C-alpha cells in the first residue's frame, strides 16, 4: 500500500518530480529500494511483460487492474497508473477510476486516443472528438474517491492534429478538473517551452522516452522550463530487455550464464529484495523454522 505522503503534497515541493516506469513486482520493489518518492505504472511495460505483445490497445481493464494491485502490494510509494482510454465509454471510465483507486493507485492517466490506442511515441494515432474527451475527464474527476487521487489528462493531439489543437484540448481538460496536464510527444525544445509558457502555474508532465519523439531532458532541465513531473516510463523495461538479451545469448553460446556482460544481482540480494527476511521471521515466530529441523 502507498505510504501517507500523497502525490499532491510531493508536487507542492520545488523542482520536478522524477517518476520511473515500473511494470511488475520486481521493478516496483527495485524502484522503491532506490528511494524514488513516487512511481509510474507504465502501460507499455505492463502489456509487454504481462502479455508479450505491443502496446496497441490489446490489454483489458481487468488485466491492467491486476497489475495495479501487484504494484500496490510490492511498494509503499504513491504511484500514477496508466489507464489508457478508460477501456470504453463514460461508464467504463467511471469503473476504471474507481477500480484503480480501490486497488491502490494514487492517480490515473487517461488519454484521448481512439480505441484501440497505441503507445504515444508510435505512428497512426488518432484522437476522439474534443467534447467526448472532456466528458471522460469530468467523469474521472467525479469518480475519484478524493482530491488526493490525481487525474492526469493526456492528449495525443500533437501528433494527430497539431500543437494548437493539443493546447486547446489541454486547456479544456484543465477546466474540466484535471490535476495534471500531459501533452504527449512534443517534437522540439520550442514545443516543450510553448507548453510550459501556455500553462504557467499548472502541474505539467513531460514524457521522456529513450529513442522517442520528444527531446530527451533531465528533470532539472524540465524543472527550469516549468514542468513538475518528469516521466521516464521506458528506462526500466528497455534496460531489462537489453540485459536479458545479453545473458540469454551468453547462455546459449557458452552453456553457462556466468561471465555475461549483463549485470546480475547476487541471489542473496534478490532474496532480500523480494522479502525473504520477513518470510523467515514469520516462520521463526510461529515455530515453522524449528519444524524443518525434525
Automatic annotation (TrEMBL):
The keyword Protein biosynthesis does not apply. CDD domains: ICL_PEPM. Gene3D superfamilies: Phosphoenolpyruvate-binding domains (3.20.20.60). SUPFAM superfamilies: Phosphoenolpyruvate/pyruvate domain (SSF51621). Pfam families: PEP_mutase. It comes from the Bacteria. Coiled coil: none annotated. GO terms for molecular function: lyase activity. Keywords: Lyase. PANTHER family: CARBOXYVINYL-CARBOXYPHOSPHONATE PHOSPHORYLMUTASE, CHLOROPLASTIC (PTHR42905:SF5), PHOSPHOENOLPYRUVATE CARBOXYLASE (PTHR42905). This is 2-Methylisocitrate lyase, PEP mutase family. The lineage of its organism: Bacteria, Pseudomonadati, Pseudomonadota, Alphaproteobacteria, Hyphomicrobiales.
